[in-house]
Automatic annotation (TrEMBL):
CDD domains: TM_PBP2. Gene3D superfamilies: MetI-like. It comes from the Bacteria. Residues 46-246 form the ABC transmembrane type-1 domain. Keywords: Cell inner membrane, Cell membrane, Membrane, Transmembrane, Transmembrane helix, Transport. PANTHER family: ARGININE ABC TRANSPORTER PERMEASE PROTEIN ARTQ, CATIONIC AMINO ACID TRANSPORTER, MEMBRANE COMPONENT. Belongs to the binding-protein-dependent transport system permease family. HisMQ subfamily. It holds the Pfam family BPD_transp_1. The chain crosses the membrane at residues 48-70, 82-104, 124-150, 171-195, 225-249. This is Polar amino acid transport system permease protein. It is a multi-pass membrane protein.
Length: 260
């Protein structure tokens, strides 16, 4: 099964697949696929960037949703806690947050293990560290977008669910969430594009994303302008594809609105 999946992924690779851009137009150049150029390495970096962004999105959205719910809680201590959380991670630079997660987690785990007599080295997976760091930053911003969307929904919507005999969970699922998605979608769209760009920070901890791969190619070949130009184009293409796809989702979410 994995062999078929790998073959399908290779065949559909838009850069180094049989009909990929680098395969068709980059032959005998620095971006040729295979041993002749850096096309394979850059294509792998694109896959890592997309995978990291897509893996971070649901985690960040779930955290942001829970934080938005907590911010509306009657418990003052809980509201204070989430307020501190969002203030910290919206205030810290993303790169510093990444360093804290990557290096801080290693030191913390090593300190805990040293108490039980283990003195070996600990290394955190760079992909996981990047996912956690980007997710907490994304969630701190997403929570504010979702909180504003919650406040835009009239209280009468909740009362309507109670009048129909729905539980709070079903009211949230059937009545509130569809409206929440429609209201919050423009703000979340912007956050997705920011997340896509912020994945470039993981290159500093050794993860082979677009920036890392093109940076290595630039240093080896001394063609910095060429390879960083390719990195710019790749991010722009990903942003345009995202904008097109999210525009379709936004139109779908608003399909039930009354035409005025």
């Amino acid at each position: 099964m994995s062999g078929w999946l790998s073959a399908l992924t290779t065949a559909l690779d838009p850069l180094c697949g049989p009909v990929g851009i680098f395969s068709l137009f980059g032959q005998n150049s620095l971006v040729a696929c295979g041993d002749a150029g850096w096309g394979d390495e850059i294509a792998f970096g694109v896959k890592v960037t997309i995978t990291l962004a897509l893996a971070t999105l649901p985690v960040g959205l779930l955290l942001g949703f829970l934080i938005a719910l907590a911010a509306q809680s009657q418990d003052k201590l809980l509201r204070t806690a989430v307020g501190i959380y969002t203030t910290i991670f919206r205030g810290l630079p993303e790169l510093l947050t990444l360093f804290i997660v990557y290096y801080g987690a290693q030191l913390g785990i090593q300190s805990i293990l040293s108490t039980v007599g283990y003195d070996g080295g600990i290394e955190i997976n760079a992909f996981l560290a990047g996912l956690v760091a980007l997710a907490v930053v994304f969630s701190s911003y997403a929570s504010e977008v979702l909180l504003s969307a919650f406040r835009a929904i009239p209280r009468g919507q909740y009362e309507a669910g109670d009048a129909l005999g729905l539980s709070r969970t079903r009211t949230m699922t059937l009545i509130i969430l569809p409206q929440l998605v429609r209201i919050a979608l423009p703000g979340l769209t912007n956050l997705w594009l920011i997340l896509l760009k912020d994945t470039s920070y993981v290159s500093v901890i050794g993860l082979a994303d677009i920036v890392r791969q093109t940076g290595v190619a630039a240093r080896v070949t001394k063609e910095a302008f060429f390879f960083y130009g390719i990195a710019c184009l790749l991010y722009l293409v990903l942003a345009m594809i995202s904008s097109f796809g999210l525009g379709f989702v936004e139109r779908w979410a608003k399909r039930s609105e009354t035409v005025r």
